[in-house]
Amino acid sequence: MNKVTPFLMFNDQLEAAIEFYTATFPNSEVRSVARTGKDGPVCSAEFVVGGQLFLGYNGGPYFSFSEGVSLYVDCADQAEVDLYWDRLVNAGATPSQCGWIKDPFGLTWQIVPRRFTEMIGDRDPKKVKAVMDAMMTMVKLDVAGLEQAYNDA
Questions:
Q1: What is the CB-side half-sphere exposure of residue 57 using CA atoms within 13 A?
Q2: In contact, 58 and 36? CB cutoff 8 Å
Q3: Which CATH architecture has domain 65-153?
Q4: pLDDT in tens, the chain (153 residues)
């Protein structure tokens, strides 16, 4: 186990969440599951999503996720942004803005094309501002629109 591992507290949807997450992202697996009783519901699990180890627990309605913590998905290109965005939307996720989307379990994801990160790392502050301004108008991030803002600056 890693020294620091994200621990996700679900109400009662842990099993459905890990099934969705591990089916959606490559390099994912369920490592262990503990149930309450022989055939009872899942109470805790250790699982990997996109190479990142997580621990999960069904803790009841005492805690909920907030946008203060999100999972960042580094996407190689627009096709990969579209792939993950569509999978999340088709599962019942709620799009927000700026590439953020809340999955049906309440966890927020950032679906971000790598090119965005490259452009906002530019030394020209006018280009960076143009890309940031364009991003602020988007729900799902659009590489072509971000590139246009960058090139026009």
A1: 10
A2: no
A3: Roll (3.10)
A4: 689 999 999 999 999 999 999 999 999 999 999 999 888 889 999 999 999 999 999 999 998 999 999 999 999 999 999 999 999 999 999 999 999 999 999 999 999 999 999 999 999 999 999 999 999 999 999 999 999 999 999
Neighbours of 74 (CB within 10 A): 12
DSSP 94: E
Going 71 to 77 to 82 to 83, the CA torsion angle's sign is negative
Taking a C-beta distance cutoff of 8 angstroms, is the pair 103, 93 a contact? yes
CATH topology of domain 1-64: 2,3-Dihydroxybiphenyl 1,2-Dioxygenase; domain 1 (3.10.180)
What element of type H or E holds 17? helix 14-24
Distance CA 34, CA 41 (A): 9
Model pTM?
0.93
57, β-bridge pairs: 9, 44
